[in-house]
Amino acid sequence: MRFRVSDQEYSEIRAAAQRAGTAYGTFIVHTVQAATRQNRLGQQSTEELCEELRGIARQLNRIGVNLNQLTRIANATGQAPGELTAALSYLEIVLRRVDASSVEIGRLLR
């Protein structure tokens, strides 16, 4: 297969291939394959991931509000409310989802 690139594009591709430690042609094949895989993931996967992130943001906001209220109670009474432990446990669960989503984002961007 043949295709044309400008001198500037050729230099950029050649430099990227060298940084990747591959031959020019191999680099182009791998780049096209990666782009093809990215397109196969489709818009639906990206939309689902964005919705997941919006849901996580809403949950983190709710947790923050709850923690502020529980902290206010603790400061006023000198004792931590029992709900504080549950709120922190839930925060831990949500943070695991954040970690999993960030891994998925990294996979989608490759």
Enumerate how many helices there are, as a single number. 3
- What is the mean pLDDT? 82
Number of strands: 0
What low-confidence regions span 5 or more consecutive residues with pLDDT below 50? Answer: none
- Biggest sheet overview: none
* Portion of residues within helices: over 70%
Name the helix and strand elements from N-terminus to C-terminus, one letter apiece.
Answer: HHH
- CA-based shape: rod-shaped
Return the structural class.
mainly alpha
Please give the alpha-carbon distance between the first and last residues. 25 Å
State Rg. 24 Å
The number of distinct structural domains comes to 1
Q: Provide the β-strand percentage band.
A: under 5%
